[in-house]
């Protein structure tokens, strides 16, 4: 029971598993986790990895995704989530929370948090949600400095540094392709191209950037047509994230239930739609903690002498 409080799979092992998955020919599916408990459910459901969305960290704090969260908040939440899962975890690190020196510190903090990798994007500070209009991207040389600083600060060579480009919706597809190539040359391990629209867009990007793993973002209510993981794999993509899906599902249910309770005064109609307490206890590994407690709890009031 040595893994009750943290995963027995080391951070380096999880990073190596993520890298192996990216080159396996099987697309790596990473649903977003809005909490540590959600990450536990993602692992039990059989996914290859866990994603931590900057938009979700912000939304959980009731903040919009406009660069208001801090490195401390994101790293702290990432550490909590990484602790409870054996899966590799990819974290949204926005623009690196500042200048290139801050991007380097971001990598250091996230390595210490035990995550498998992070992505840095080429938006201006403060960033915007990648599927909204009005984004701005930094000049290529600024992003190259972000990536180079991050790669240079990395201590575990297995830690995955992903470069995200938002240029497709700002400067066009050709710019996004050229940027992706430059980012790969600067040391990025994985390219995340944001806000492509159609399968043809994904196919064109893959053909133009052939020699590096690519990540697709299947977020709802955005600019991208929602494609099945198998379709993305067939198009040559190596990973896919579902960043806000679990939060949206949960909050949709929460709001509906609250409206019902406000109207009727009881939650009775929702009992069958709830996670049962017994299932919650399974996810929490309640019985294992209880067994551990009984094995170490040898103190009794009668035998305790405070002066001994």
TrEMBL record:
**E.C. number:** 4.1.3.30
Q: Which domain of life is it from?
A: Bacteria
InterPro entries listed in its UniProt record: ICL/PEPM, Isocitrate_lyase_ph_CS, PrpB, Pyrv/PenolPyrv_kinase-like_dom, Pyrv_kinase-like_dom_sf
Q: Name its pathway.
A: Organic acid metabolism; propanoate degradation
| Keyword Lipid biosynthesis (UniProt) | no
Q: Which cofactor does it need?
A: Mg(2+)
Keyword Magnesium assigned: yes
Enzyme class name = lyase
| UniProt KW keywords | Lyase, Magnesium, Metal-binding
Q: Hey, which family's this protein in?
A: Belongs to the isocitrate lyase/PEP mutase superfamily. Methylisocitrate lyase family.
Q: What does this protein do?
A: Catalyzes the thermodynamically favored C-C bond cleavage of (2R,3S)-2-methylisocitrate to yield pyruvate and succinate.
Q: What name does this protein carry? A: Methylisocitrate lyase
